[in-house]
Amino acid sequence: MAVLSIRMIGDPILRTPAAEVTEFGPDLARLVEDMTETMIDVQGAGLAAPQVGIGLQVFTYRVDGVEGHVVNPVLELAGGSQGESDVEGCLSVPGLGSYVDRTEWARVTGQDVSGADIVVEGTGMLARALQHETDHLRGTLYIDRLEGEDRRSALRAIRSAEYNRVTSRTAAQRSQSLGSSFTQGTAPSRGSGGTGAFGQRTR
């Protein structure tokens, strides 16, 4: 397994709808393993394949002790809004976070790395993660779902010269782990970096 480089906002692959996975084999299994390791290394709650430069419909997730992956997910939503329950961020948009209107319940049906059918459903943070990662596979970032002053503020921050320094610093910090094998005891410090995926601290 290896830690992969995470693409930052501005990279065209983050805005390109991902392709359906049609081949299930060792390459797909390796991708999921590497994505899982990368997600854990940066303390994220989820990671989509386009975020590591692969335009395929695959994402991993790790929320409240529940960890897994979904290939070719189909998303279903139900329930009321979560409201301002959690600040949502993104590993590809480091240093920023905002409240995003997500439904309380979500379910994805799809496949695992062997092609077997799977279903993942949940409420709260897991529902948020399933919605966030499925958005990535459609070429949508969480900032696209912001409205009013929240959206204007996020766009101003991203366009600022200071934000270029934030992304460069984040990339440099993450690069220290690239290509390494995962070791259970080497978690990155929670005291550095900005608000990452679903409010978690990331490098």
What does this structure look like?
The protein is α+β, with helices and mostly antiparallel strands and 203 residues long. It contains four helices and seven strands; from the N terminus they run αβββββββααα. The chain has helices at residues 26-41, 124-137, 148-159, 161-175; strands at 46-48, 58-63, 66-81, 87-90, 93-99, 103-111, 117-123. The protein has a five-stranded antiparallel sheet. The chain is globular. The relative contact order is 0.21.
Overview features:
203 residues; five-stranded antiparallel sheet; two-stranded antiparallel ribbon; 28% helix; globular
Helix and strand layout, with pairings?
Blueprint: H1 26-41, E1 46-48, E2 58-63, E3 66-81, E4 87-90, E5 93-99, E6 103-111, E7 117-123, H2 124-137, H3 148-159, H4 161-175
Antiparallel strand pairs: 1-2, 2-3, 3-6, 4-5, 6-7
Describe what is shown at a glance.
By secondary structure, the chain is of the alpha+beta class. The chain has helices spanning 26-41, 124-137, 148-159, 161-175, and strands at residues 46-48, 58-63, 66-81, 87-90, 93-99, 103-111, 117-123.
The percent of residues in helical segments reads 25-40%
Task: Round the mean pLDDT to the nearest integer and report it.
Answer: 86
Oligomer: single chain
Order of helices and strands: HEEEEEEEHHH
Uncertain spans, ≥5 residues at pLDDT below 50? Answer: 180-203
Count every helix, treating DSSP H or I runs of 4 or more residues as helices.
4
What gyration radius follows from the Cα positions, in whole Å? Answer: 16 Å
What portion of residues belong to β-strands? Answer: 25-35%
Largest sheet, strands/sense/barrel: 5 strands, antiparallel
- Judged by helices, strands and strand pairing, the structural class is alpha+beta
